[in-house]
Write a structure and sequence with these properties.
heterotrimer; A alpha+beta; B alpha/beta; C alpha/beta; B: Ubiquitin-like (UB roll); Alpha-Beta Plaits; 4 domains; five-stranded mixed sheet; 18 helices; C: Rossmann fold; de novo design (two linked rop proteins)
Amino acid sequence: MSNIETLVKTLVEKHGKTRNSLMPVLQGIVKEERFLSEEAMISVACELDLSAAEVYGTASFYTFLDTVPRGKNVVRICKTISCHMKGKDEIIEALENALKVKVGETTSDKKFTLLTANCLGWCHKGPVMLVNDAVYPEITPQKAIEVIEDYVKNTK
Amino acid sequence: MNEFLVNLKINNIPVSVKEGTTILDAAKILNFKIPTLCNHPDLTVAGNCRVCVVEVEGSRLLSASCATPVSEGMEVYTNSEKVRTARKHVIELLLSEHNADCTKCFKNGHCELQDLASEYRIGDHVFIDMVKDRSKLADMSSPSIAKDDSKCIRCQRCVRTCEELQSVSALAVINKGDHQKISTFMNKPMDDVVCTNCGQCINRCPTGALTERTYLEEVWNAINNPSKHVVVQTAPAVRIGLGEDLGYKPGERVTGKMVAALKHIGFDSVLDTDFTADLTIMEEGTELLTRLKKALVEGEKVALPMMTSCSPGWIKFQEHMFPDLLNNLSTCKSPQQMFGALAKTYYARKKGIDPKNMVSVSIMPCTAKKFECNRPEMRDSGYQDVDYVLTTRELAMMVKQAGIDFMKLDDEHYDSIMGEGTGAAVIFGATGGVMEAALRTAYEIVTGREVPFKNLNIMPVRGFEGIKEAKVLINDVKPEWKFLEGVELSVAIAHGLHNANELMKAVREGKVVYHFIEVMGCPGGCLGGGGQPIPTSPEIRQKRASAIYAEDEGLPLRKSHLNPEVALIYKEFLGEPLGHKSHDLLHTHYKVRKRY
Amino acid sequence: MENKVLKRVDYIFQESSVVEVIELITKTFKKTPDDIILDVIDSGLRGRGGAGFPTGLKWRFAKNEDSPVKYVICNADEGEPGTFKDREILETVASKVLAGMCICGHSIGAKEGFIYLRGEYNYLLPHLSKVTDDFNNQLKTKNIDFTVYIKSGSGAYICGEESALFESMEGKRGEPRNKPPYPTISGYNAKPTVINNVETLVYAYMICKMGVEKFKELGTKDSRGSKVFSVSGDTPNAGIFELELGMPLKDFVQDFGDGDTKAVQVGGASGHCVPRKHFNETIIGFEGIPTGGSMMIFNSSRSMYNVLHDYLEFFTEESCGQCTPCRVGCQQLLKGIEAVKKGERKPQYLDELKKLSATMKVAAKCGLGQSVANPFNSIIDNFREEIIY
């Protein structure tokens, strides 16, 4: 059994073998893998007795259930109005330069993927950045780069 | 009477309907037509196209009439200014994301969106063109189904069909917002997913987004090529469906006119798949009796229940979903493929034609047959046994293109040889028909008597119930069948792959025990096939079924083993059922396909 | 119309330990479920998520359903741009949310509750799970048969729509359902379900705690009580504030504006844009402009074209995509204002788009598509020049 199959089996055991478990199972995979590979979705479909297209259809509905490969750390910058007003464009520019990728891309070392997101719920403390599940409000271009550097250090 | 009646007014006219009735259906009673797109009588309610919105007095919002049940005292307006404006907007919006190259579209003239646009006189394009996939070519990877996303209006009928009726879900809704669309797993081509090619999605697609792969031009070219001898076979269900596309109401039998039209069109020989349907009964009946003998007498482990193999959509479904049950499938090829193999061997020899100069065409109520004829296993004649498969709909197009006034044609008879069929073969076109034909023959072979049902009509296997069961007690058998004395033959029939799926799960889990199972991939059997005229509904399929059984009762011969051409081919060519030659030409094998 | 002045309140964020809320629960349970529901009805509490449905009535509908299984769901899928109060509530006073759920469960006959937490707030999970476990355990020791579970979203604004949220919890795409049936008859797993906003549940708890009369002292006839506001944009005082309902917008702008306020977007992206000239007569409440709490302030340096463009881009992406008016309508409005701005379409095209938005308001399947007309019309009507030039 591949690593993914083992992971899926564990998640299905934890959450149950019904359709209602689909979201937590997919979320569990993304937590570990950062995205849902073809193999992972097939494995889920198999375990929950769903068609692969249904699993893909459900996953692709949700912004955080990526179905394309993502880096070890997924960086999301809120692009909605308040953060826009507070300068999200400068943050994105700084990160694009620092990581040498454009929004939507993954660094060549597969460590970071840079994305934008709709309202993250920190409008009073924008601009805001999410790295995986961790939130960084009132970010500046300088602070954004520092956060990224921390992740570089910690992940080696 | 426990039913509550609800009183309401539609366009100021009072009406009383059963509780739970939708506004749409209540309006139908008063003959008010409300346009619909996502709604379909075979499917659950979606309520997503919003073209059926109506005004309900006292409500700020318009209501989707397909999804809103009536309530007491409701006052509904189906054509108020507010409704008209909204409806036009909805149509205009759909057109703004629809690749409206109508004159080039296969569905031109048969498109529900086109009809609505015409009805509401939507002329100039108010809104900005949003067609996303105009430049992208349609997915033509499947030999059966063409999928053109630029024509899709996201009504999701196909998705519901694939899930609710067929339990396949090869198609699903993916993404959201402006990126939402109908697609396959990871947007793979249609020939690389679990699609069974049943074509039920095509039957329900309101536009040209899902159509059959057409081979009209290839067939015309063959006909017009003087060096080719073009034979055509017609499946049982075509003769009771074709009329619908040529001016008749559902349920009209047009066998003689169809044969006449095919001759006018220029086929060199117009033959009948019914012939190989009868032959199938001989082969498959013998196969069943052989398996039973092995199990009951020799104690050998054979795969039972045996399952029919006439329906290529069902076969591919089984290859994907229940590969562990492939041995249960009869090894018999479908009647189409038996016909193809014999056309380029037996027929060619009898007619003195070099098979390499033959083109074998079949007219089928089916899109999966287009896939089936391309299977690598289907070349036992030394050539591709069946070259082109056209749907009933495509035949109607040929008739029109040929300028034939179909209704005025005089009936004509099939050519010979391989043009003879019995009533037992005709009923192959309805769910339960193969079972009924098999029982008529097998029972008689074993006991020497006719099946104990009035007028040969085995009613328990007929009808549209999802899964049917029947038991036939076999007694007073002929000496050579004494191992069957007192056996109660237990059979089941499923139609539509959703029902097949349920039945297969029960079989796999050992919850049910049968000797023989008939499965047809499409709802109602071939009469409801993916290649039949559009629209389809339970009522239409009922009328087609009545026509099939009427055709059966009207024929002089109603038992496959009495077909004289069948007797002749065994004598002249095949030898005996399951014999060496049969094995080579009429039987096949299956392959395991991935479920995901 | 009653005239209120801006008044700060402190009900929601008063800290309460799990022990304290459980005490209040046991005390409340001395009343019959019907009496509790009557209190909530009597309080005039209306949903704090934005739609404003009377909370007590919702509970009564669910109670009247004859079903052995019912659910209470806390809608914590806060996604409306400009709204961030539920996050703060869950971060600081989760125990009160849980208590509100438990009281609701007791009143309607539900034994299970779920918090549907948006994926963007995943970092709250460790804390929230800890409080919830503690709460569940203590309920057990008091022999109260009610358990709360947490479910996570994964980034889809539409899942804040109640029926879309059920679909998501059932492992499907978050596509809103047809209504009727309403959730109190057929909600999660097709069972009778009460779904309330995070803040609503806390107020339900507060009503049980401080009594109906005290709650009713605040607010107006149509908008009883107070409300948590999320203030953002061009303001020196961005943040979360609990204020009495029924205040005039003028007061709000005076307190929160930067002295150069040109417009306030009340109710988030799906709400209304109020220009300066209407500040005086605009009341914040169900009789005026209702809001789930979002107050976004724009000063005169802001281009209202950019604001509207942002909103429309948001709806275009976050529409579930199933119904025609919303899926295509949002795209047409967005491309439409772009075309007018670029001069590819005449300014009069905006009037065509307004008609389209009117259709979306009445013909879209759910609240998302229906409410796009709010920002669209209020911005086009008040800032037409900014859109065109």
